[in-house]
């Protein structure tokens, strides 16, 4: 393995484990293709410690975000079992650097995703769908990064809370999304912000996996991307997300004295 790839992967992995921010890498340190290699190398370090992969997450599913970052395609990263947090549980913020939360739609697969699919084929591969909250936490200082930086950093993925699954697929289209802190709305939006329809994110996930020569086994999670902007997570707060027709997902934040 390229020693630089291993070096960057180790730095990002250590930053996540220790919850200590690092500086951005020097401009031009690696290109986008190499960033994905760094990402997979850092995830493999987690797997070597006993973690396991349970799905993928998509980023830049908002056209506005793509334009803001000057890119024309989605980015994606891995979900591991250690990222999964129990719904309605209390989550210690000390394990993160500067965590934010965003409401999403989560798919559960019932077949192996091993080729590009259209919407009809994708629907046949979905076991269920659920409202979800993703905790993102860039390992870079001040949450500043380039496109290559964020891909190498596993697209800032840090935690996932998934609500109850259902097969109410008809509710996916333009469903109202409301995220509240202690009962006060902090973000509102629609599932239409996710590529116009969350199912399109599933289709794009199949394309991205195939382009990388990878597959996702049945029983995996696919996080479709954010329905609103992310919100900084304060301590000792009740976080709730309601997606009309899909249900509710919630958790509490806490900080323990180190």
TrEMBL record:
Gene3D superfamilies named in the record: Fumarylacetoacetase-like, C-terminal domain (3.90.850.10)
Keywords: Lyase
Domain of life assignment: Bacteria
Pfam families: FAA_hydrolase
Ranges where the Fumarylacetoacetase-like C-terminal domain occurs: 99-250
Entries under InterPro entries matching the protein: Fumarylacetoacetase-like_C (IPR011234), Fumarylacetoacetase_C_sf (IPR036663), Hydratase-Decarb/MhpD_sf (IPR050772)
A Gene Ontology cellular-component term: cytoplasm
GO molecular function, one term: 2-oxopent-4-enoate hydratase activity
The name this protein goes by in its record: 4-oxalocrotonate decarboxylase
Lineage: Bacteria, Pseudomonadati, Pseudomonadota, Betaproteobacteria, Burkholderiales
